[in-house]
Amino acid sequence: MTQLRDIPSVDKVLASRLLEDEIRSFSREWIVTLVRQQLEKARAQVRLGAEAPSLELVAEETRRSVHELTRPAPLPVINATGVVIHTNLGRAPLSRAATEAAVLAAQGYSNLEFDVQSGRRGSRQAHLQGLLQDLTGAEAALVVNNNASAVLLGLSALAEGREVIVSRGEAVEIGGGFRVPDVLAQSGALLVDVGTTNRTYVRDYESAVTDNTGAFLKAHASNFRVEGFTAAVEPGDLSALGDRLGIPVLHDVGSGSLLDTANYGLAHEPTPQESVAAGVGLTFFSGDKLLGGPQAGIVVGTRELVRKLESHPLARAFRIDKLSLASLIATLLHYRRGEAEREIPIWRMISTPVQLIEERAVSWAQGVSGITGIGATVETSRSAIGGGSLPGETLPTRVLSVDSSRAGRSPEMVLKGLREANPPVIARIEDDRVLLDPRTVAPEADRQILAALHGALK
Ligand SMILES: *Cc1c(COP(=O)(O)O)cnc(C)c1O
Questions:
Q1: From start to end of 195-330, where are the E strands?
Q2: For the segment 154-187, what is each residue's pLDDT rounded down to a tens digit?
Q3: The model scores a pTM over 0.85
Q4: Kindly report the CA angle at 198 between 171 and 278, in degrees rounded to 5?
Q5: pLDDT tens sequence across 138-158
Q6: How far does the centroid of ligand 1 lie from the alpha carbon of residue 426, in Å?
Q7: Phi-psi bin for 268: left (phi > 0), alpha (psi -120 to 50), beta?
Q8: Cβ distance 26 to 66 under 8 Å?
Q9: Is 201 helix (H, G, I), strand (E, B) or coil?
């Protein structure tokens, strides 16, 4: 029977030199702490009747915990799911210019809140305002940490303690904890829902107005679609009512595509420009969905309303950091230069001709054709936009379809094997086959995809 005294001592483990590299790379003191933790665990197990671990095993476990505790995160993965804006995989990848702008802002000091010309304090918002006014047609703009905080700021600044009228069809949950009724409650506004789940008219809003109405709120049902016998009030009609009654209209458009998605064979996603043109008081959208930039919440609207948001205490709490600000400006400049489709990764993916995708799928299939027992073919499939934009809207694509059944391997095992590659490859299963969509994989990663497939299938 093993006893506690069979467990190696801290000194013995350290003297074994098995942890030499770790001690050199980090500190002796820290490694000692980790060894002690391993020995503590071993003692508990021995008391329960387990064998005492060898010195080598203790060193190995210590090394494993060193690696776990010093692994940088998040680490890159290859998105072969075909979902362009994949929230769990970090939403929009940034353009080269947007990435470089963030690096530059990170590396040194910058004129973040400093007016170089006058030598006085400046505003971090100033850099963005002109650009957003120009791109959306709005009088004023404000950028915060994300769209959820933008909407919460807007409601808090304009409607705290007052009623906000929302269509029953738009009191929605977007996912990740963003629910319109909850955000309203958090802001201190009182939700007044009007109309029905499928049909709401201007008169529904009008008849709910009281002396205490603070705003009309429209929210884009980003991630679901109501079909059939439906009616929603257009932003322009609601703005006309708001103007007549002196009530501001707030419009959460969600994705905030500056390009017309209909040009890419998708349903038309409401754009911030349309909302501004329709006379909406404030329009809210995300930076990292169809805008293709960093996480950010963008508000555009009238000068008077934006000013109220700027001076609310939450504006400081929600303020955007300099790295995101720098890459957001670089992203918006792509739109200004008319090069968004070429430079912004998500637009490049969305606009890639299916012919080019097919060529890559074919080359992937050729790359794995030699592996025995695996059927790899190119199939017609659909890529999704994702990220709570354009529900049910897909783009035609070609995928590499892997059938591993003859090799006695389940699709789940193949998927797991792909995830164990470096970098991990994330694919999907459909009808017992593993599908990899080249649309969301940068062409530079083709070699890594093939290496991962070989690793997972051999
Ligand atoms: C995605 C989304 C949000 C939340 O935006 P984040 O930038 O993720 O905070 C809010 N409203 C709508 C309609 C959305 O689609």
A1: 213-219, 249-254, 282-286, 297-301
A2: 999 999 999 999 999 999 888 778 899 999 999 9
A3: yes
A4: 70
A5: 999 999 999 999 999 999 999
A6: 24
A7: beta
A8: yes
A9: coil
